[in-house]
Known about the structure:
This protein has 19 helices and two strands. It is an all-alpha fold.
Amino acid sequence: MKKFDQLYVAKHNEADIQELNFILNTYHDIEYAKQFLFNNLNIYNIEKDHRFFLNMGHCFHEFWNKAINTVASTIDREFSFLPKTNEWRRSFEDLANHKVDGFYIESTMSISPIGIRAIFEGQASFNQMQYLTLTLDEDLSYSDFKDQGLLHGIYLEAFELFLTITKYEKPESLLEPVVGLFLILCDIAINPTNGFPIEIYDYENFIYKNDPGIRFTNLCNAIHQSEEDFLNMITDYSKDEYIEIESILCEKIGCKSSYRTIETVLDWCNNDSILKLLEEEQNHSYVNYNFPVRVLFSKYIRFQEDKFIHPNIFCWFGIYGSSRSKNVDFDIVNSLFNKHHALFIDDYDDEVKPVMFEGKNENAISQTFNAFFQYSILFDMVNKWVSEEGEFSYDYKWLSNKPVHELTSVIIEDFKQMFGIYPDELIILKDDLTEVI
């Protein structure tokens, strides 16, 4: 479709195919928002696109709007509890009309040197190193882990930015409070609240209060400018310590508390549609409508239920996973780990397989796995249809060791059922439009 658009515009000097414009504009809005969230520095390539990129505020608006609408079409068609996205547009148009940074064409805006990928990798690696320190040898040092190759590149970017802005000293041990504070920042940064799960409370700063990289940088600056001694607030890695620090830091960056807004999510559980969804999750057997959305959103709800009770475990899992914690019984930690374990894993034979959960019907788990990836492949085929040139490729060996022809036959039948046409019936564009126009 991107190729068709390029050739059509070059030939006719206009873009007047409404359906194609809708598809490609939506695709680019979502894709550019994802790229920016992934790493803010991607903006320098994104802004070179003068055909589809308007501004990051527009991309963020569409990203949140389409995501929430997708969930709403699945479990809340009347928007009885989800944020009412249909009421947002005028406020975003006002931002563009008033030339607010980030919301008009060729707008300037502040960015962070990192994005959500660096935060995710930092959060994972430092939790891992705390776990290894407690389970292997408490004398292991920061330098030991660096020598072993665990501290480099993307795994270190967020922590180094944290130290640079806050002016804290590099720790000798991974068990020092400075690491615990860094992990709270990671947790807050990746859980924005301005528009989901609650209504937008700050349109003008919609980007800055939702982008994880910018949130992380702002949190670091808030700590540097603060009089509070945050390091002395972390002694037991307790729930009370987490809640106190999280509340102070969210207030300092002008955001609603990520932890407190979990209460909004828990209130949703009074709705019949959510109760039905959680019953499906309990039985591991889902209605075959927007299947991946139902699966992932049900797991999101379950995650929030437990995080509200044990936010400290979810923030500092390296500490609690070692079974050496002072304030939570390890049986609780272990049960949470097993409950929220990955649904699907890359097995020893390089094939993705479902994880069997204790007390769950194995047949239902397998059916969920098959349906989930059936939809996922269909989504990938749509992405190829929009953005890749040439013939469709059916290289899904990462998913299954089945013979390619066997897997391909299932894929093309699913495509036919969804769109009424087989993939090989589509015309593959070369360098002109004579075949189609």
